[in-house]
């Protein structure tokens, strides 16, 4: 009871300075920092890296291990390359990840954080319409993640590997591209959708069902963005490997 009272006081103090969504975002990174320590994570796979925001956040919370970023668009990857300079434990691939080694068209959006293999849909989320608008479609290379990892000797202990996937509705293809390696991954962070912002993308329940079948259980959900009525559009979901205890 004393601990719970202290938590209530801490929540009250935080909310007197910042809004609840900011508190949630801070809590996400606090949880991630603890998870990376407890699971003794040595490799972070940063899938859908954009310009390297997530990798840089991991450095800010104290993670010192290897980061491997994947970003298919040349402009954004050029920015990642600059950010990686001077960080000997951060490397990257200018490629997308998926279920098949191939070349396919990606839709580059007005705001590049929305860029996706899926066409945008604003039926339920018109607030994103300006940023989630197709500027052009361009071909990019797509690789299976298991084939990439086979060539990286640093990822032989998959229980100490953390997979972050933020691919705007393409998560299931990324996971399937891990093949038999997926059930050995230590933990996962993925962005999942409760309200569609793209055409023909899976509902969050479909993604969670798939990952549960691979041995992963949700540990935390953090809202990413909201509708005008307060309902969450997307969540960052952190899942841990139920069959692998912390080392």
Q: Mind explaining what this structure looks like?
A:
The protein is α/β, with parallel strands linked by helices and 247 residues long. The protein has seven helices and ten strands. It has helices at 2-17, 20-38, 53-60, 74-84, 145-150, 171-176, 204-213; strands at residues 43-47, 66-70, 90-93, 96-97, 102-109, 134-143, 161-165, 187-193, 216-226, 232-241. It has a seven-stranded mixed β-sheet with strand order 3-2-1-7-8-10-9. The longest helix has 19 residues, at 20-38. The mean pLDDT is 89.
Write the layout of secondary structure elements.
Elements: H1 2-17, H2 20-38, E1 43-47, H3 53-60, E2 66-70, H4 74-84, E3 90-93, E4 96-97, E5 102-109, E6 134-143, H5 145-150, E7 161-165, H6 171-176, E8 187-193, H7 204-213, E9 216-226, E10 232-241
Parallel strand pairs: 1-2, 1-7, 2-3, 4-6, 7-8
Antiparallel strand pairs: 5-6, 8-10, 9-10
